[in-house]
Amino acid sequence: MRFFYCLFILTTAYGQYRPIEHVRPLIGTQDAGHTYPGATLPFGAIQLSPDTDTIPFAVNGRYQPDVYRYCAGYQYNDSSIVGFSHTHFSGTGHSDLGDILIMPNTGPIQWNPGTSAEPQKGYRSKYSHQEIANPGYYGVYLDEPKVFAELTTTTRVGVHKYRFDAQEQTHLILDLTHGIYNYEGKNVWCFLRVENDTLITGYKQTNGWGRTRTVYFAIATSQPISTYHIKDIRPSSYKGFWRKFDTENNFAEGAGQGIKAALFFGAANTLELRVAISGVSIEGALLNLKTEAPISDFTAYQSLAQVQWEKAFSIVENAEFLSLEDAVNFYTSWYHTLIGSTIYMDVDGKYRGLDQRIHQADGFTNYTTFSLWDTYRAEHPFLNLFYPEQNASMIESMLQHYNQSVHHMLPIWSHYANENWCMIGYHAVSVLADAVIKNNPYLKHTKRYLDAAHSTANQRFYEGLGAYLDDGFVAEDVSGSSVSKTLEYAYDDWCIAQMAKKMNNDSLASYYLKRSNNFKNVYDAGSGFMRPRMSSGAFKDSFDPLSTHDQGFIEGNAWNYSFYAPHAPYELIKLMGGDQKFITHLDSLFTMDLPDAYFAQTEDIMREGIIGNYVHGNEPSHHIPYFYNFTSQPWKTQEKTRLILKDQYGETSTGMGGNDDCGQMSAWYIFSALGFYPFAPGATYYCLTSPLVKKATLQLDNGKTLQISAPENSSKNIYIQRVFFNTKRLTSPFIEHEQLLMGGSLVFEMGPRPNKNAFQNK
Fold first, then answer.
1. Residue 553 pLDDT class (50, 70, 90 cuts)
2. Are 716 and 643 in contact (CB under 8 A)?
3. What pLDDT does 220 receive?
4. Hey, which residues does 157 pair with through a beta bridge?
5. Which of the four pLDDT bands, split at 50, 70 and 90, describes residue 171?
6. pLDDT 10s digits, 566-605
7. How confident is the model at residue 93, as a pLDDT?
């Protein structure tokens, strides 16, 4: 999956970049859903964005592959916009949401959105790509109703402004049936109530990726509603005694599975809307509205949104890059890391829990949208380093998920008061361990973290875990993707061991450390790869290490997954034949050819996302370029990461080699561009590499300042000659988390050729 950057930018003096002016929020994807181009705040509950089509998830009961391109609701190649909805996922490989769609219009009511081929037959509109996309703001001109639409937001309120060219009767379509990845029966129920001539409230409940999800809303208008019509496009055969009334015309209530409304405003040149959402109640939505956006003042909310984004970017100061493109990629990546996980509670701290009951957040902010199989790798370590308070609240949210779980498990993929069970492993334990080991000062209940991790790691019903506990590996005939599961369980077990050791629970630390060695149980010395085993103990026949499908792996093949033991790099090197043999094998990953047939049926990866057989767009590979740091040739990490930074990220329609996956791809970019990477979250060290910046000042949460400097850095000088931290030369290609938190200077001396003695005292 690839994305397109917005082309609106303000220039500054060469080398010095003001962050917010060099963020280009995604305004399109060529093949698959990525980041939405609309308005949001850091971790905002509202993600207000245009949707460009209504492709259903299934047609005649069969999955429709084209829907995958609409994970975020928007496709740059589409020529029409259906409307603006208020919730979206950022760069996920599956989807949901797209709630409370609003579309401005003139003329007669059109209840159907129409089609991309014939937009005039519906309420959608053609548009041109003269879009304006800045952090917290989106603007576009809609050709058919001839209106300039602008969007901005507070944390829980989407703010719209529509400026119509002609003074004629205008109306809004409010479509509660719209959603992303829609299918027959997904909309369970809708309710709409016209409270007065400037206020509408209601809710919708869906059965989707989150199978029990309710969104409440309150909509305030700047102009009075003159007349309105409510239509149920999926009416029930049972009419009850509502049949006595004309419920479609100026009747103040509507309920059903297919509720839409047309709201007329007379001759209004300008119309503003404020749309608040809540997961708790209509009362909660009203409270969010009154607290965050009490009056109609689009310009004021836009200014406040920019201030909040400026604050979020203020961590980075005086940054200097090798090129403008590098600056844009860096700051856009920083933007992406802050829009994945989202606040999920009302302004009074109430939120809907996994148990579908209403809870009160006490001393923390409740979050949702945890794509943990992706984000444990670099996104959460990024937040733990630069936004530790928010990361601690996310961890507390995960603990509350555990408290509310009837399965007594931490989240796998947390989604709007639902567990959607997407992907494998139990990687919440990695996020918890990483924060505990690195002494995040905002953590509260660390003893309970260990209890929750221990419970999660022993639920036998989950994904072959019973077999893993009994046999030390998941058998392929017991549970598919068995090798991936075995390897990821082993890493997670190591994380629990580190947390237990930190808490002086030696028996639990010893137990999980032993379990963490289970990665060795799926290594086949004969082939040199991790390989699926059967219940009999024998390795699976008909093994193809290049194939992703039916070979025991998920989002990777044996070549990539055979390097998945981030918790035991030296043991893996020994297992695979020692330093030189391991290096040769690792070199081959980046240089060999992977025929198209091996990824032709893979939705999220195409040729642009692959270097040799290294697949950067699928997260199991993200630590692999840093593996050279554990060998006798650490300069190859510098070479490979610089290649990936340039090859897999850019300002073009193929600007990213895979899903951003709630910020993981972007967090990899930021760490690598700064010159250090969390190879094994749950460990205290980072791997060093060739930075992309020439200099950058980082303002840390503890008040310390970290200055990164690489004065000789260039497109040719990609190799580290020496590294100094606070004037002391580093003698290994690693740096400790506590060193970074001390602040001071991290200086890279760079050159055009590898220095094989870069980390020796010579």
1. very high
2. no
3. 98
4. 276
5. very high
6. 999 999 999 999 999 999 999 999 999 999 888 877 767 7
7. 84
Tell me the chain's radius of gyration from C-alpha atoms: 26
Only one residue has tokens 């980075």, namely 316
Supply 167's token pair. Answer: 């003074």
CB atoms within 10 A of CB 641: 26
- Whether 49 and 178 have beta carbons less than 8 Å apart is answered as no
DSSP label of 660 = -
| Residues 159, 272: Cα–Cα separation, whole Å | 7
Q: Can you tell me the distance from the alpha carbon of 229 to that of 85, in angstroms, rounded to the nearest whole number?
A: 20
Distinct helix (H) and strand (E) counts, the chain: 17, 40
Confidence of residue 176 (pLDDT cuts 50, 70, 90): very high
Indicate the SS3 state at residue 367. strand
- Residue 729: CB atoms within 10 A of its CB come to 15
Q: What is the DSSP letter of 273?
A: E
Q: What stretches of 531-629 show up as alpha helix (H) in DSSP? A: 558-561, 569-575, 579-591
Question: Where are any strands of DSSP class E within 213-335?
Answer: 213-221, 227-232, 253-256, 259-267, 270-278, 316-321
Phi, psi of 202 (to 5 degrees): 165, -165
CB 416 within 8 A of CB 402: no
Distance of CA 240 to the CA centre of its chain: 45
- Any bridge partners for residue 134, and if so which? 137
Q: What is the mean pLDDT of residues 161-167?
A: 91
- Please report the domains of the chain, with CATH numbers, ordered by start residue: 25-311 (2.70.98.10), 317-340+568-762 (3.30.2080.10)
Average pLDDT, the chain: 93
Pairwise CA distance, residues 281 & 214, whole Å: 9
Give the integer Cα–Cα distance in Å for 531 and 284. Answer: 52
Amino acid letter for position 282:
I
**DSSP states of 117-159:** S-GGGSS-EEB-S--EEETTEEEEEETTTTEEEEEEE-SSEEE
Residues constituting the chain:
762
**Percent of the chain at pLDDT above 90?**
86
Q: Give the dihedral sign, CA 53/56/62/63.
A: positive
β-bridge pairing 744-751 and 705-709: parallel
Those residues with Cβ within 8 angstroms of residue 168's Cβ, 6 or more apart along the chain or in another chain: 106, 267
**AA identity, residue 619:** E
Q: What is the mean pLDDT of residues 278-306?
A: 98
pLDDT in the model for residue 34: 63
Q: Tell me the two tokens of residue 120.
A: 């005039």
- Which two tokens mark 151? 């969007």
Q: CA dist 639 to 178, 549, 662, 728, Å?
A: 47, 31, 27, 24
Structure tokens at 459: 């639920």
The residues facing 744 across adjacent strands are 706
Task: Please give the Cα distance from 327 to 222 (Å, whole number).
Answer: 40
